[in-house]
Structures are given as C-alpha cells and as structure tokens.
Amino acid sequence: MGDSEAMVAQGYTSAPYGDYNAPAATTTVESTGQENASLVNGTGPEGGSSAPVENGKASDEVAVTAPGAEHGDNAVSTLSPEEERLWSIVRANSLEFNAWTALIEETERIAQYNIAKIRKVYDTFLAEFPLCYGYWKKYADHEARVGAMDKVVEVYERAVQGVTYSVDIWVHYCTFAINTYGDPDTIRRLFERALVYVGTDFLSSPLWDKYIEYECMQQDWSRVTMIYTKILENPIQNLDRYFANFKELAETRPLSELRSAEESAAVAAASDASKASPSESDGKADEEKSQADGSSEQSPKLETAGSTDPEELKKYIAIREAMYIKAKEFESKIIGFEMAIRRPYFHVRPLNAAELENWHNYLDFIEKDGDFNKVVKLYERCLVACANYPEYWIRYVLSMEKSGSMDLADNALARATQVFVKRQPEIHLFAARFKEQNGDIAAARAAFQLVHSEISPGLVEAVIKHANMEHRQGKPEDAFALYQQVIALEKGKENSTVLPLLYAQYSRFSYLVSGDAEKARKILVEALDHVQPSKPLLETVLHFESFLPVPRQIDYLAPFVEKVINPNSDAQNVASSTEREELSLIYIEFLGLFGDVKSIKKAEDQHAKLFRRSTSELRKRSADEFLSSDRTKMAKTYNGTPLAQPVSAQAQWSGGYAAQPQTWPQAQAAPAQPQQWNPAYGQQAAYGAYPAGYTAPQAPAPVPQAAAYGAYPAQAYPAQSYAPPVAGAAPVQQPTAAAPQAYYNTYY
Predict the structure, then answer these.
(1) Residue ranges of region Disordered (predicted)?
(2) Which of the four, 64, 170, 367, 620, has the lowest number of CB atoms within 10 Å?
(3) Helix, strand or coil for residue 382?
C-alpha cells in the first residue's frame, strides 16, 4: 500500500491541533437548487466563472497528467498587476469574499501549472473560509493535474477536517479514492469513515448512493444488503426509494448471497439447535445415531438456509421493514424542519429570519428528544449555514457545557473565536464570561484585552464587563484603572461619542463600589468639562444628583441644561426637538423635588415658550412611570437575544450587535443551552490560545455602543465613528446614598 493510499485508509493530519487551532468540522450538505445554486456551487468552466461563486463545485472526473515541474517560491512572488490589486484588497479585509473569488480566478487563469502560486492562494483563502467545500475540491483537482497524488490526499484530508460534517466533500473524496486505488478495503474504510460523520444527515443520499454503486460494481451483494440495512435505520431523504430497492434486491437474489457470513453462521446454528435435540428416553446408541444423522443432513440445511424460501425471505425483509417503519415515524416529526432549510450550505450572505428561527426550533426539538449524537450532528449542520452568527455558537457551547461535554464546548468556542466569528465582539465577551465561570481568569482577561486592542477599541460594554470582572476578583483598583485608561484614550479623539457614556459608567461604578459620592460627582463634573452637553449625559447627571447627598448642584447644572434645550445658532450636534423637550421635562421634575418655587417657575415658563405648551399641559409622568425602568428594552440575556447579524464579507460588522448593556441592579436570566464536533481542521495559520495571544491580530471592526446607564427614558447618544448607538435605559429611583449598593448583581 503506497503512502497516499495509507493516508486514505487511516486518515491524515497535516498539523497538530492546539486548543484553539480548530476550524469547523461542520456540514455543507447537498445543494437543493435554491438561491441560484449554479453560482453558489461554482458550476462552470474550470478556470473560473462569470460571477463570484460560493462553493466552487467542480466535476469529479479529473484528468491526472504526468508529474509536472514544481515551482519555487520565486514563482509565487511574480504577480500580475491584477493579482497585486486583489491581494491588497484581501490583505486589508480578509472577509472580502468577492475579491477572494476574483483572485482565485485570476490566479488560475495566469498560473496554470504553477502549483506553488495556486497553493498559496487556496491555502490563504481556505484559512478564512474553510466551509467552502467546492474550493477544497478544486484545490485537489489542481494537485491531481500535476500528478502530486500524495498532495491530493493531503488536501482532501485537510478538507474533511475543516468540513467534517459535509456530505459533499466526503462524496468527492470517496470518488477520488474509487478512481485512484484498486484495494476495495481501502475504499470501504474511507466510506465507513465518512458515514460515521454524515451517514445520518437527512441529505446524505449522495454518499449512500455512491457506496451502493461501488459495491454493486464489486457484485458483493451481502455488502450491498448491509448498506441498505444501515440506511433503513436512519430517517434520511429518499428512504422510500431505498426500501423499495432493497426489497427488489432481496426478491431477485438468493438469501445465501445477501446474508453476511455472521448471519449465515447464525442461521445454521439455529437450524442445528432445533433439529439436534435428543429425547432423554433415548439410549446412548440412539443419541449417537441422531447426531450422525444430523451431521449428514448439515449440508442440505445450509443450502436450504441460503435458498429463497418464501418464509425465510419474508422474515428477512420483515426485520428491515420494521427498521424502515421506525425511521419513517421519526422522519414525519422532522420533515417540517428539514423542508424549511432552504440553504443548508455556507454562504456569506445573511440568512432570512424565518430560516434562522427554524434552526432554533429544530435544535429545540432534537435536544428535547435526548439523543446526544443527534444533537451534536444537528448543531454541526446548523453551524455551516449559520457559521457567521454568534448566537448559534454560543448556544452550542452552552449546550455542551450543560451536557457535561466540556471538551466539545471548548472546541466549539475555539472555532468561533478564532475562525468563524472572530471579528465579532459578542463572541469574545461571551468567551470572557465562559472562561471566568470555569476558573480561567487569565483567558478571560485575554479575551477582554483582545476586544480593547483589536476587535473593537472603546466598546463600552467590554469596558463595563471587564471592570466588573476585576471587581469580582477583588481588584477594584484595576477596574478603576481600566476606566481611566479608556477615558484617556477617548479624550484624545475628536468628538468621541463614547466618552460621555464612559464617564457616566465610571461615576456610577465608583459610587456603587467605593461608596464615595464626592468622587462619583467629580467624575461627572469632569465629564461636563470635557464633553459637549447632551440629553443622555445630562439625564444621567440629573438622575445621579437626585440620590446623592445634599447639597444639590442645581445652580451648577442649570447652564448645561439650558445649553441643550435652548441651543444658540452656533451650537454643533444639536439635539432633536423631542430630546430637548424630554430633557426639559426631566429637569422640571428634578426641580420639583429639589429646587425652589422660583427655579420651577422659570423652567416651566421656558418649556411653554420653547415647546408651545402651557404649564397645565405639561406632560407629567406618573409615579409608576418614574419608578419604572426601561432596562428591559436593553438588558438582553443570552437566552433572549434577538437574532444576531452575521459578519458579511462585504460589510463586516457594520451594525446590529446585540449588546448587553449594564443597568441598575437586576436579576439576569440563566444562559441558554448547548453540543460537539470532529477533531479540528489544521489550518496553516495557527491561532493562539486565549492566554497566549488569543488569536492572530485582526483589524478593528465597527460595532455599536449600548447606552447602558440606568437613567431616564431610553435615549441614544450621537452615533460613534464606527457604528450607530443603542438606546439607554430608563430611570429607577434609588435609595438615599447612605451606604453603597451592591454593584450590578447580574453576571457582568
């Protein structure tokens, strides 16, 4: 057996797998023709196509030429102007999928048999998009054309590690093995490897069909029957066709050809036991005679057992029919979910809300069914189509944690944070919480630091959660230092939209943790000195001032409020009319509690003048409204997070990040639920574990901020430079500031 044949039979690992060097072993299943499948699967001329393709599907028939000359690194460095342009695009933004497909097409057009150049572009592309099974196939085809059969096997082995739960890539690999190797055992072992992972996939028919076709070519009818028996145990597509084909085979071939060696031996043993049962009343001679007769009749018995006796045939079919009926019963329960999956393969375009919800419902159903193996495989299928959605990765991790499979949970989290959603802050914030929860504080800090330095510098939610974690670890000074460092960085930026929120959170944190009201007040005063007054900031200040110890700083605050509700013509970033009116009402309420009658009258008169309302028409909020909080509009737990938006290859993380802002103390719901995968795909680019760098440097990605201070009505800050904001929380009346309150009793 040659080296490449041994790799096919035994499996091949191109690189050792570290804790976080594991891209997805997930599913890209059979295309059903939806969503322009010809473009999605890349069917077209081998050199490229007229439009960017997704899965790069190519023919199984590959012309293997004589070994070609290997090209050195100097060949790789010779690039055309168009290649240089496209490489510069993907280096700047590695998620620019259209640029990648154009680069591959251009390289294939120019390189032809320059395999070194082709390897470079495919290796780099597939490190970013390992789920594109068709491009693995095209890569293997290029290796086959230069006669590098060991390299073909290596590519396929990397492919089935990167897309372990893909029916299509296993079909391509098995087809290659059939066309290349003559040893049936080698080919059968490869088929059996594939069936371990995707044999129960609802859309696994192409693989089963290829296996049946191969064994029919070998005319090994007992193996064909064995394959049908395995199929009939699983609720997969085309089950009726498989049962009909099995019955036809059973009725046209003798049972001696259909039974395995074990089955034939069992039938013979059962027949011997029923015929050779001597009576106790018989003498020893009769017993010996009976045994001799039994021996002489053994050959006819085996012949009968292998015949097409109607009763034997009926029993033989009935056993498989019972399996078929049971599988059909389960199929009737899942067929609705399966039919709602319109795009089972990976694509950079977002999925529609209905399909995302269907995946959640399908996972709910399978988890309730309680079959752990089915749960794992469905999650892996889901995380092909939904690979760009952090919520499904989070759910997978939590499901595996709940089931006690921490190795699978860690593996899924590593794939999410290092490959599939590595540029989305949500997954790293979840990773920090998950690591802290499991006692790995160093990894939690590394996850936060990655967000601060690379993923989304200045993200307020990350600062809040990081500071809270340091407080939980008994290091409040580190938490204070974190706020101060981030505020100092934001003060160096022109018109930072984050700075007011950071000051508000820092003030609140200081008061609730240290109980130092004067320090908290000084932080807010500093904020008013360094940032332009705005409705959200002043709303926070008024609310905070309302429960701090006397004296109230009414005279100090009045000019700032006046500047917002009655701006002059030269003012920049003027608040909207609605915001100005709401702030005016809040200020009047504040004065009603803490001001004198003169200041109240002045504020009411100004309100009536600016917003054309008389004093009697002022929109007063009831006590219930004042005491209530809008925090439920913004405090999203992992159980109730709206469907997250994926990172698009064209617009990475442009908005829609479901932030989990900090509000006044409240209870948080328990996390969602969890699930597994195959040992990882060994990419050429290694991703470090959290404590040791966490991941390769990423370009900062834009994300929206959450106005998370527990203040008056939900109100957005002006948009940050990298994303639109999320509304802030509504007021919760606090007790007098005699003693500091427990800070943020949710997880963060």
Answers:
(1) 13-58, 269-308
(2) 620
(3) helix
Could you tell me if 524 and 504 are in contact, meaning their C-beta atoms sit under 8 angstroms apart?
A: yes
For 614-626, what is each residue's pLDDT tens digit? 545 545 544 444 4
450 three-class SS = helix
Band of residue 297 on the pLDDT scale cut at 50, 70, 90: very low
Other residues' Cβ atoms within 10 Å of the Cβ of residue 35: 14
**pTM across the whole model:** 0.70
Partner residues linked to 147 by β-bridges: none
Q: How much is the pLDDT for 205?
A: 95
| Residue 12 predicted with pLDDT over 70 | no
**Chain mean position to CA 496:** 32
Classify burial at 621, counting beta carbons within 10 Å of its beta carbon; exposed 0-12, middle 13-18, buried 19 or more.
middle
Q: How confident is the model at residue 7 (pLDDT cuts 50, 70, 90)?
A: low
Q: Supply 339's token pair.
A: 């039919």
100 and 91 Cβ atoms separated by less than 8 Å = no
Least confident of 24-28, 438-442, 505-509, 581-585: 24-28
- Cα dihedral 491, 497, 501, 502 sign: negative
Residue 700's CB: how many other CB atoms inside 10 A? 17
Helix and strand element counts for the chain (H, E):
33, 0
C-alpha–C-alpha distance, residues 252 and 360, integer Å: 45
Token pair of 391, please?
Answer: 């919520």
- What CA–CA distance (Å, rounded) separates 34 from 129? 21
C-alpha–C-alpha distance, residues 548 and 546, integer Å: 6
Q: pLDDT at residue 75 above 60? A: no
